[in-house]
Amino acid sequence: MLFFAVGLRLDRRRNMLRAEVTVPRLKTLLLGAAGAIVLAGAGFAALAWKPALDPVTPPTRESFPPELIRRGAELAAIGDCNTCHTAPGGKVFAGGLALPTPFGTVYSTNITPDPEAGIGRWSEAAFQRAMREGVDREGSHLYPAFPYDHFTLVTEADNRAIYAYLMTREPVRAETPANELVFPLGFRPLLAGWKLLFLEEGPRPELEADHGAYLAEGLGHCGACHSPRNALGAVQHDHALSGGEAEGWYAYAVNQSSPAPQPWTEESLFHYLRHGWEASHGIARGPMAPVVANLAWVPEEDVRAIAGYVARKMGHGVTPATVPAPIIPVPGPGTSPTMADSQAVPPVPGQDAGRAVYASACASCHEAGRPLPFGGMHLKGSTAPHGPNPRNLINVVLDGLPAAEGERAPIMPGFRAVLTDQQIVELLGYIRAAFTDQQPWTGVEALVREVRRGHTTSASRPTDAVQSAPADPTQ
Amino acid sequence: MSAELSRRGLLGVGGALVLGFTLPLRAQEAGQSATPPAKAPPLPGSLKTTPELDAWLRIDAQGAVTLFTGKVELGQGVRTAVMQIAAEELEVPMERIQLVSGDTGRTPNEGYTAGSQSMQESGTAIRHAAAQVRELLIGRAAGQLGLDAGSLRAEQGAVIAADGRRLSFGELVTGLDLHVKAQPESRLKAPDQFRVMGQPVPRVDIPAKVTGGAAYVQDMRPEGMVHARVVRPPAPGARLALLDSSAAEALPGVLGVVRDGSFLAVVAEREWQAIKAMRALAAGARWEGGPGLPEQRDLFATMRALPTESYSILDKNAPVPGTAKELRATYTRQYQAHGSIGPSCALAQFQDGVMTVWTHSQGVYPLRGALSEMLRMPAEQVRCIHVEGSGCYGHNGADDVAADAVLVARAMPGRPIRLQWMREQEQGWEPLSPAMITEAGGKLDAQGRIINWDYGVWSNTHNTRPGPAGNLLAAQHLAEPFTPATPRPAPQPAGAGDRNAIPLYTFPNAQVMHHFIPQMPLRVSALRGLGAFMNVFSIESFMDELADAAGADPVEFRLRHLEDERGRAVIQLAAEKFGWGKGRPAPGIGHGFGFARYKNYAAYCAVAAEVTVERETGRVRPLRVVAAVDAGQVINPDGLRNQVEGAIIQSTSWTLYESVGFTPNGLTSVDWSTYPMMRFNAVPRQMEVHMIDRPGMPFLGAGETGQGPAAAAIGNAVARAAGQRLRDLPMTREKIKAAIGV
Amino acid sequence: MVNLKVNGQQHSLDIDPETPLLYALRDELGLNAAKYGCGLGQCGSCTVVVDGEAVFSCVSPVLLLEGREITTLEGLGTADAPGALQRAFIEEQAAQCGYCIPGMMMRAQALLRANPNPTDDEIRSSLQTNLCRCGTHMRILKAVRRAAGLMQRADASPTPATGAVR
């Protein structure tokens, strides 16, 4: 770790750390802690100390105005609290989700108001401090897996609402498993160093004037996934929103370098965020699925604000007149039979092996003309083949889109057991060449192998965004 | 397996196809009219319409028994049950029995296999026929042996004398005329003598189904068979305006395109070729016109605005003083689909002027009538033979696909035509189960007794079966189209939309109205239980609401109003086995109860359910379901249990998940992504089905008895777990979450 | 020509190489077990095993499966000599209409091969891709558990089933 640290140079003003030594760009939030070892040794120890705040008796539901709880629910949805603070098959907000990292596993905490296992003894002040500074009630620093570098921007009023919402959930007595981290990263005071480097405490009143910016940069923490991170796991602010990684998926750039072949507009972004799909862009999957599921029921104006902000970041699309015609025409209703079964292979030109895979296994859905969200996206209009790497395509080819429970949602079968690695490599090569004007990807074979063997997480979530729960969650 | 025998035997050689027309003509023709022959004695079950013994049962010189039933296997185990009955009363081993079912060339006409009536009708007929044939054989043996019939007994396919002398049925049957009318009375075996009936005999059809045997019409492959596919309009009511079939016809393997008006099909040598040709043909078709379906969000307002015929089906008045509380509630249900896993399929062959169709229709005789009308052929020239398909649960695409197949077969004489629907055709064109509205009102007295019950149900017909040719989809698309029959309400006590609308409970005042809606915005017909599902759901939900208002335990409250002893017994049994009322469920968990006697005259069923509702997401998980059933004399307890288990899961899926989506332009539920149903993760952790056997009592149909009570039990459990009552089906996660709020 | 190895036998088929495996099995090889349900990989009726893993044959073109080991339900035994999984399904009477059952069984076969002693949740999770409309789920789960037991027992030789009297 010292080896990595040698060349570190802090550019505090740009909130950016440059690594002179070429470090493989690992997605690790914990790497930050590695650097912090050095920094802590350099005399930041004193900064690490934070006082414990007094425990309180868990507040009653009656102590909060109902409209505050309601707004808190909406804000918590915008913040996607449920996504990380719920284990597969576990109770919502009871924590325990394992976040695997190269340095061990961090478990999300129980944020139900259980007085022992959860945050039932937290005062509102303690909650405000956690959101603003990344410190828990007892004064321990929290790992930046909890995105307080974004949440620090949340206003006191909004935090109050989220607090009201969380404190009125059903308390769940579920202990959070102990983190399994390599020495010495379990030593939390090290995190003070990381914060010194990368946490610029909010709020920022100038941001609040732009509701979309405020939600997207703060509570919505879009940049936590959609931005590249530096060697210590902090967002590179001068490359904010230019693409990042999340749970084994590539989070595409959502600024001017967006690879979407069909430019996004505020309206199309709104539809996508609100409904989880958009006719000429595709459907949300992977870690984006729970995000859009949450945005489905928050106030429309919040989603519109986020969509407007992101559209502006992309630098186009505010006026519909500037939007080019759809790459893939969307058929009008009632013009042809509603086709679910697409068992007919349209002719696909070409000779190579990848074409044969595409023509026989993919084209029947992806060129059948059945409109989204239930039909297969025509790849000419899809972002995935145009992206800087084929990670998401590989994930979807292998595992498909599992059925959502009891809800209308697209289903795609996975081809893990049908296609060999070689066939997938050929397929990806064909798709890149046939549907984009981009250079071929490199390192595809290794990536396919790595993803198939599960060396990286590539779970496809059902599009209802609810983890598949066991039959008896009471057990 | 006899299913295979009949099929293979008939299909093995093309020339044998018409060999089956050997049964007595009267058996074929009987039952064409619904009324029994004049002056006929009151014969049991379907003997009423087909009284000759040899129409039901024949024995050859080797002693092999062939049974004939007009009821067909739908996965409900009817073949095994009928064979058990015959083995019991005839005193032959099951292995010696073959069963022929649902063949207009060979079996009695028993109408449709529907309404949980197979055991009451066919089972009863075969039981009596077998008992009477057994007595005839004993009588004949008595003559031959010079002994008194009373000293003889039948056993294992033979008649045995006290001195050990033995005459096999094969020996006895020679010269015995079974072409005689059944007697009204039979010497039935006493229940304590049963050795086959009441036993969990393994189903005869299962081994082939789990080993890849030919078990379904989809699996038939007669010599020379070719594959056909239909092309359907983009929406109901659209007509084919222009067709360029050249691209389809140019494809490899394509044998021809069949068009009659807006009916369009293509035939190819191989199935995959037919599918590709179907797509090419669809691409060359231009349609015009269309329906204008209602907007789905306005569905119930649309229904209420349609003209109704209102019938009072119960009006009971007694002056009762004082009302403590009055409650009203409205319940609604969206259109739901049969959703067979295997799309409908038929095989048809037109040869030597005879149209033969192998079909998984629930009613081969009614289908024959419809097909002959559509083809303008005499009924004798059309033969319908039942072969199993995927489970149908009512009137799905089975009859329609048979019509499609015969139209293609007529255009291509000689070739056996196999026509299977695609998934979106099954989902998009099957007749749906109608959307329904119910309204319940109740008044409680100070003692917590219901003193007035007031209930109404709004529904379309639940029966557009053929019958008339106009009820066949293809017949409506022909150049000279047939018009669908005008829908009529079905009479009580069975009813249709109003099935089980009259509660079995006793109230001093009770009014029940059936508001029949003749106009059908979407094509609808029979789905398992018809209106009973929604009516029982509504009645039993409302009973819980009234129980809450009365501060009573839901089970005790039901018993308080129920006099029917057998009904009380199943309620008590289900409650006891469930452990009802023992301890309060944990937060987020709810217990619910539901009860009904199907059609108020078939099997009794009570269901208790435990579910959990996740507050934050609205997700429901059924944890434990316990049912108690009284189906009279049980023929096969494992088969009955299987049926009720299935009913519970299917009904739970309807209750929680299922609704057909549509827009003014047509149906949008065309596959499993757009018509989601229950998958394994949501199946209850535990399920128990308890039976109250009633030896010697009449068989009570049980195939549909679970649908309503299961829905009610789940609904009531959800209401308690969520703390909110959901009255609009399906009660999806979103609706539950919205009801809970934050 | 497409070369397919099905239930241990090599077949050379003169068919369109883009034909889904389902139609090759049913129409060319006369195998009944794999069923057409949706053609979209949504219901699992068509499930077969390829190189030990469960595959939707309706969306798997034959040209991608040359040289692979394909197993259908017919490869597990016959009505007279049922394999362990088939015995278990007969003994549990785990079918109503039965149309979905071959697909269920092949997915279970792949599961039990990879995980000989699965938990209830693992069985459910594995079968999540397969739909049953009759509601036979409880029996299917029991049958898979029973099959696991039969397969584990050394004496699980394919003898004719005795039938279920339960």
From TrEMBL, chain B:
- What residue spans carry the region label Disordered? 30-49
Aldehyde oxidase/xanthine dehydrogenase a/b hammerhead domain segment(s): 211-291
Alphabetical list of Pfam families matching this protein: MoCoBD_1, MoCoBD_2
Matching entries from SUPFAM superfamilies are given as: Molybdenum cofactor-binding domain
Sample GO molecular function, one term: oxidoreductase activity
Q: Extract the SMART domains matched here.
A: Ald_Xan_dh_C
| Protein name per Swiss-Prot or TrEMBL | Xanthine dehydrogenase family protein molybdopterin-binding subunit
Q: Which organism is it from?
A: Teichococcus wenyumeiae
Automatic annotation (TrEMBL), chain C:
| InterPro entries hit by this protein | 2Fe-2S-bd, 2Fe-2S-bd_dom_sf, 2Fe-2S_ferredoxin-like_sf, 2Fe-2S_ferredoxin-type, 2Fe2S_fd_BS, Beta-grasp_dom_sf, Diverse_Oxidoreductases
Under Pfam families, the record lists:
Fer2, Fer2_2
Residue ranges of every copy of the 2Fe-2S ferredoxin-type domain listed in the record: 1-76
Which sequence ranges are marked TM in the entry?
A: none
Q: Which UniProt keywords apply?
A: 2Fe-2S, Iron, Iron-sulfur, Metal-binding, Oxidoreductase
Molecular functions per Gene Ontology: 2 iron, 2 sulfur cluster binding; metal ion binding; oxidoreductase activity
Q: List the CDD domains.
A: fer2
**Name assigned to this protein:** (2Fe-2S)-binding protein
Q: Which organism is it from?
A: Teichococcus wenyumeiae
